[in-house]
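Appendix B, record 7
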Amino acid sequence: MHIAPPIRPQQAINRLLDALEPHATPISAVARKKLNWQYKGKQQIYLFREGEISILRDSDGLLMITVYEGHVFGIAEILQPMRGHVLRTEIESVVLRMDAEEAIRIIKEQNLWEDVTSLLAYHTSYLAYRDALVLQQRTYAVIRSHLMEMILLPEEMRMRISILDYIQDRTHLSRSSVLNVLSALKKGKYIQFIRGGYLQHIESLPEKF
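Structure tokens (predicted):
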């Protein structure tokens, strides 16, 4: 069974971005740059406008999600500063930084807590979705779910990362297990990918394989 991701509360995110951006500072966000939660001893939040930015688990570097649309990162870390995740830009991106205390002041002043709640609920739902995606017993089910997720990306993004890298970045599956399944799917004409392993098309994917 294909697992659908939660729906992004884009309007709530946009309202937060619009309210916070005038008080934020643009930063140099080159490709593969990791963003620190602290700046000059103060907790930070990050406003993401354009590009690609990923959330990685700090303990082992497992990629949890790559975001391609406007987003606000760091509000949960203000309320519960566990800092178990790090942010990394995948390509040159438009990112702004601001002190967490200033962000909370603006959120209170403009009564944006409902939008904050929507954002945090989405983050919680996405973590549950990722767990359902990767904590499955069968290797094929995990690979199938990631292929269905990957085909929804714009073609230019799919042509920047191979299927193997996409899946291995997000799971602990071995290279051989992923390649074996992909090879069998291609032979069965269920999927099409070009040299280098870049996904072109999914004809259909059986529930079991």
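Remarks on this record: The CA atoms of residues 2 and 145 lie 6 Å apart. Residues 138-202 form one domain.
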